[in-house]
Design goal:
heterodimer, A: alpha/beta, Rossmann fold, three-stranded antiparallel β-sheet, 4 helices, disordered N terminus, B: alpha+beta
């Protein structure tokens, strides 16, 4: 902290390089929140984020940026993978969120390179008393498509939906199903691709 | 973060720049919205700018010490509004980033402070702006402070104890 109460981690001295956040902070955050809420309520459905008004710096995707600007603040330590390291200053400035030293300390983990995703059990899985104290993963992937791909069943899904996910390593699905027996502990995952979003809450079962 | 990070981009902040910025910032932050609006309207060459952080209102804890000594305690919270503005040059590049923190809830107020803060960092504009904006505002604030101090002084009571011969 300095005299003006501005917070920024070391290395963000160059404010001229920062991109603006939401153009309309209140409405953009409300629309984003609604999209995430709908996505979590209907796992596997693809939602379009109203992210066109945020101009995140590369390589942060529009949907991932909107989620960060909406949900992250001083109380949510962030973990960024190596791919997203260049946007740490952007997120620190606009969210004010501290950076977590390890995935297990993160409330939100942003993954820019899905191929290099850490093992899922490296993240915080919550406790039986406080299952919500888990990490929420936001993973940038190659593309989303409905109607083909893995079959999803569970709350919020009438019978089953199919979700095609490009660019996610195969071990993700195995690691995720291994977490199933820990319920209500677990991980909520938001898959983002550009301005698209699909949610995989911990209650959703995946049939490969 | 150390205060060097607040300096003009690309240039390492030396003590003098920091001190100068602190000076104009103290004046801008205390100037009223009406005063800043007037000087902004009077500004001949208005710069292009973009909003880095839109005005947002929140609370800050004001801390103080009784009589300037002793341990600091929380005096209370006050409402503040802050904004950040980036000035853009003719080529479309961001040149200077200004910050505005003001008491109260006026969004435009914080924006204007941020704008002037950014413009005053520009060596090309600094001289003219300092003379036409900062100095008159500082003089007005000093005059008001003097008036108030005089009014308070008039009611000053000196207490003393006479030596009692016992």
């Amino acid at each position: 902290m300095n005299a003006l109460g501005l917070w920024a981690p070391a290395g963000t001295a160059d404010f001229a390089r920062l991109e603006p956040g939401f153009a309309e902070p209140v409405h953009d955050a409300q629309e984003t929140f609604r999209a995430v809420l709908d996505g979590m309520a209907f796992p596997g459905r693809i939602k379009w984020m109203p992210a066109s008004r945020a101009q995140p710096p590369a390589p942060l995707g529009a949907a991932a940026a909107a989620i960060a600007l909406t949900l992250c603040d001083l109380d949510t330590p962030l973990w960024l993978d190596r791919n997203l390291a260049p946007v740490a200053a952007y997120l620190a400035f606009h969210c004010g969120a501290p950076l977590a030293r390890a995935p297990a300390e993160a409330r939100f983990a942003f993954v820019g390179d899905a191929a290099a995703l850490p093992p899922l059990d490296a993240f915080a899985l919550g406790t039986d008393e406080y299952p919500e104290r888990s990490s929420t993963l936001v993973i940038e992937i190659g593309g989303l498509v409905t109607g083909s791909g893995v079959r999803l069943v569970g709350p919020g899904i009438r019978e089953e939906v199919r979700l095609g996910v490009a660019g996610l390593p195969a071990r993700f699905w195995a690691e995720r199903s291994a977490l199933g027996e820990l319920f209500p502990r677990g991980l909520d995952v938001l898959l983002v691709s550009g301005v698209q979003l699909a949610a995989l809450p911990r209650s959703t079962r995946v049939i490969l | 973060m150390d205060e060097a990070a607040l300096a003009a981009p690309g240039a390492p902040a030396d003590e003098a720049t920091q001190e100068a910025r602190r000076g104009w910032y103290a004046v801008l932050a205390k100037a009223s919205l009406a005063e800043l609006d007037a000087v902004w309207d009077a500004l001949a060459e208005k710069p292009d700018y973009r909003t880095l952080r839109h005005s947002e209102t929140g609370l800050v804890m004001v801390r103080g010490r009784i009589g300037g000594t002793g341990a600091a305690f929380n005096l209370g919270e006050m409402t503040m509004t802050r904004a950040a503005i980036q000035v853009i040059d003719a080529a479309g590049n961001v040149t200077y980033t200004g910050f505005g923190y003001v008491a109260g809830r006026a969004k435009r107020h914080a924006q204007l402070v941020a704008l002037f803060d950014a413009l005053l960092q520009d060596p090309v504009r600094h001289g003219a702006l300092a003379a036409s904006v900062v100095v008159p505002l500082a003089e007005r604030q000093a005059a008001m402070k003097a008036v108030r101090a005089a009014a308070v002084m008039a009611s000053k009571v000196d207490f003393f104890t006479m030596v009692r011969g016992e």
